[in-house]
Amino acid sequence: MSRSVPPIVPAYPAGRPRRMRRTAPLRAMMAESVLTAADLIWPIFVTDVAGADVEIASMPGVRRLTIEGAVRAAEEAATLGIPAVCLFPFTDPALRTEGGEVAWSPENITNRAIRAIKAAVPEVMVMTDIALDPYNINGHDGLVRDGIILNDETVEALVRMAMAQAEAGADILGPSDMMDGRVGAIRAATEAGGFRDVTILSYAAKFASGFYGPFRDAVGASGRLVGDKKTYQIDPANTDEALRAVARDLAEGADMVMVKPGMPYLDICRQVKDGFRVPVFAYQVSGEYAMIEGAVRNGWLGEKVIAESLLCFKRAGCDGVLTYYAPRIAAALKG
Ligand code: PBG
Is 76 touching ligand 1 by the criterion CB < 6 Å? Predict the structure, then answer.
C-alpha cells in the first residue's frame, strides 16, 4: 500500500516515538513487515560434471550440488519451511552447442534434478529457469545469428524448454530470457499440453545488470558471453519501461512477476506492487550475495545485515524473495 504521512503526529512531549521503541516486545508488536521462511525461494546450482560440485569462488558459501546434493537441499528446505527451490544447471561443457539444444532434453541435468526432487520431497516446489545461457557456447539467453539475438526463433526454443521442464514435474516456470512474447507462448503451450496448473513466475522487470557476474561463474557462462545483454534486458535507468514489461507479462498469462536484481531496485518493487496488486518477488542476485557475504566474511559488516537486506523486500511490497541466503536465514528464523 502506498502511504501518505499520517495526519496526526502529536507534538513533543505528547508525542514521544521512543515510547514505542523502548522494549523488544513493543518493537515486535509494531513491526510493519515480517520475513518468514514461507517467503523464500532458494536458488541452487546443480551439476553432474565430475569435480564441478565445489564452492563457487565468487559466491563464498555457495556450492554447486550433485543431483543427490540437490535432493538433500530440498529435504533441508522442507525441514526449514522453505516452500521452493529454484534450479540452475552447470552443464557439461561438452554438451554445450551454439543452439543450446540440450536445454530441452528431458535428460538434461535440470530435468533429472526436477524428477529426483519431486520423487523424494514432493511437498517442496521446484522452480526452473528458462533461458539458454547455461546450455549454449555463447552465454546469451537466446539464439544468436551474426551477433544478433533472435527473438521469435528463441521463443520457440524456450517453449520446448518450458514443456520439458513441465513434463519433468516443475511447479513454477521462470522465464528469465526477456524475449518478447515468451510468456504468452509458454502459457499457450502449457495450456494446450495439459499443464493447466503449472505457474509462471516471469522475470518481468529484469535489468541489464552487472550484479549477475558471480551467477555466470556458477553456471559456467563467464568468459563465453560476447557483448552484453542490453538488447533484451532493461536499462537500469528505466522505470516506465519496467512497468510496461510487467503489464505485458501479466497480460500474457504470468501468475507472478519478478524484479531483478533486488536491493538496487526496491523502488521498482514498490511500484510494481502498488501498480498491479499481483504476487511480486524480488531476486537478491549473486552479486548482491557476493557483496554482502564478502563484507561479512571480512568483518566489515555484521551478520545482521543479511536479515535486514531481506526484510527490506517485504517492506518494499514484495511477497517473497529469491535468495542464496534462504537456508541460513530460515535456520536463523527458526532458532
Ligand atoms: C539467466 C539468468 C541469470 C540470472 C538468473 N537467470 C543471468 C543473466 O541474465 O545473465 C542471474 C541470477 C543471479 O545473478 O543470481 N538468464
Answer: no
Residue 65 CA, ligand 1 centroid: distance in Å: 18
Residue type, 262: G
- Catalogue the active-site residues: 206, 260
Question: With contact defined as beta carbons under 8 Å apart, do 169 and 82 qualify?
Answer: no
CA–CA gap between residue 149 and residue 144 (Å, rounded): 5
Query: Which pLDDT tens digit goes with each residue over 182-198?
Result: 999 999 999 999 999 99
Residue ranges making up the domain that contains 160: 34-334
**Domain count across the chain:** 1
Nearest CA to ligand 1 atom 11: 212
Is cis: bond before 261, omega within 30 of 0?
yes
Q: What is the CATH number of the domain that holds 318?
A: 3.20.20.70
Strand partners, 43: 86
The pTM (predicted TM-score) of the whole model is 0.97
In a domain, 254, yes or no: yes
What residues contact 188, with CB distance under 8 A and at least 6 apart?
none
Ligand 1 atom having least distance to the Cα of 284:
15
Q: What is the mean pLDDT of residues 260-274?
A: 98
